[in-house]
Amino acid sequence: MSASSPSPGFWRRPMVARRADEQHRASTMLELFFDLCFVAAVAQAASAFEHELAAGRVGHGVLGYAMVFFAIWWAWMNFTWFASAYDTDDVPYRLLTFVQITGALVLAAGASEALEHEDFTVITWGYVIMRLAMVTQWLRAARSDPERRHTCLAYAAGIFVVQIGWVVRLALPDSTGLLTFAILVVAEIAVPALAERKTTTTWHPHHIAERYGLFTLIVLGESITAATNAVRTALDTHAALGDLAALVAGGLLTVFALWWLYFAQSAPQLLTSLRTALLWGYGHYLVFASAAAVGAGLALNVAHTAGHGHITDLTAAAVYTVPVAVFITLVWLLHHRTAGLRRTADVLHPLAVLAVLAATFAPSPILTTGIVTALLIAATLFLASRERRG
Fold first, then answer.
1. Residues 6+ apart with CB under 8 A from 6
2. End-to-end alpha carbon distance in the chain
3. What residues contact 205, with CB distance under 8 A and at least 6 apart?
4. 220 contacts 259 by C-beta, under 8 angstroms
5. Is the pTM of this model over 0.85?
6. Stretch 187-210: mean pLDDT
7. Alpha-carbon dihedral angle through residues 55, 59, 63, 69, given to the nearest 10 degrees
8. How far is it, in rounded angstroms, from Cα 346 to Cα 182?
9. Cα Dmax for the chain
10. d(CA 164, CA 42)
11. How many Å apart are CA 320 and CA 297, to the nearest integer?
């Protein structure tokens, strides 16, 4: 056998649990590829969201975006936690991951129809493809891991039953759409809590934190891409350079500050139990969704400045400032204080949230938001430096 040939175990390995204290655990190339493909779905959802806002259908757009983003986030999250415990990187594992990526691309193709016309047919089938691939992965794990077989089978059974519900939902009257969606969402998020009651899977805290951090990077990067495309379109329509410069400066300051804010924390130290891990993982729905919405909001404001769209100045500002405020709030709750205010630094984030929301009514809301978020980072650094010296 040549040195470049794969070892016999590469083709199929027992899907035994990986150690939760494994040293130097990092994301694999397959996981990074998985994230890169998933960002296509994020981009499509954010773009469709922007179009709904530009058309003046703000409430409809927000609700549709929340529903579509749930499908993206939940499928990504389930794969991430499973891979943290059972990544064998053999041929069946890779092929099933490719099936999930295919489902994500189908989901991305249906994002616009779901948001604009409430047609969830394509997006549902894409989602179900991803989830059924996960059922197969859990069945593989159940076969190879007797200690956690009950947990793995509970995951497989729970996911499979809920997928039947999603397919049945397509045949129900449109009037029941929101109610059935809410019921199935509750069922989806209940599966991990119920499956891991007796025996927990061996997810790796540092690996999980890295995976979430990488996806945050990708979503923030997508926001930059969306804003860049919007600026290019505005320049083609000869929009005022001064107005665009203020938007670009404010947008960049905001995204840079959001990045700094998120990665200033040590997430692995928080993931010490199943309860805290579930709260931390579930809370990232709003972190990811708001980060992607920041890009959509900035693109919308660029288009609005160029004279496109059918919304007021106040609405255009709000669809940018509100996601920024949500992001700051969730990062503070997940990574900072959850048991009260005990230091001066603990009040900075709530004050920044209020200032960002107040920026909605400022003459230049995007630039003002960027300045506020930059000041938040500067203040936290100053207080942290003073505490170390003290």
1. none
2. 63
3. 20, 267, 268, 271, 272, 277
4. yes
5. yes
6. 90
7. 50
8. 34
9. 70
10. 25
11. 4
Q: Strand, coil or helix: what is 143?
A: helix
The token pair that represents 301 in the structure block: 């404001």
Distance CA 207, CA 83 (A): 10
Burial string for 263-294 (b: 16+ CB within 10 Å, else e) reads eebebeebbeeeeebbebbbebbbbbbbbbbb
**CA atoms of 259 and 357, how far apart (whole Å):** 19
Reduce the DSSP state of residue 339 to 3 states and report it.
coil
Residues 42 and 379: their CA atoms lie apart, in Å, by: 32
Contact indicator for 139, 159 with CB cutoff of 8 Å: no
* Cα(342)–Cα(346) distance, integer angstroms: 7
Q: Which residues contact 35 (CB under 8 A, 6 or more apart)?
A: 76, 214, 215, 218
Contact 134, 82 (CB under 8 A): yes
Tens of pLDDT along 2-25? 444 444 456 777 777 788 777 878
Backbone angles phi, psi at 266, to 5 degrees: -105, 90
> Residue type at 373?
T
Crossing angle (nearest 10°) for helices 313-335 and 348-358: 170
Under 8 Å CB-to-CB from 219, ≥6 apart: which residues?
39, 42, 288, 291, 292
- Supply 225's token pair: 């891409």
Phi, psi dihedral angles at 343 (to 5 degrees): -135, 165
Alpha-carbon distance of 353 to 320, in angstroms, equals 13
Give the integer Cα–Cα distance in Å for 88 and 75: 19
- Work out the angle between the directed axes of helices 58-86 and 177-195 (0-180°, nearest 10): 20
* Residue-wise pLDDT tens digits, 307-361: 766 788 888 889 999 999 999 999 988 876 544 445 666 788 899 999 999 999 9
The amino acid occupying position 337 is R
- Which token pair is 189? 């998020």
Hey, what are 240's tokens? 């005022």
pLDDT at position 1 is: 40
Residue listed under structure tokens 């979503």: 219
Top-confidence residue, 118 or 158? 158
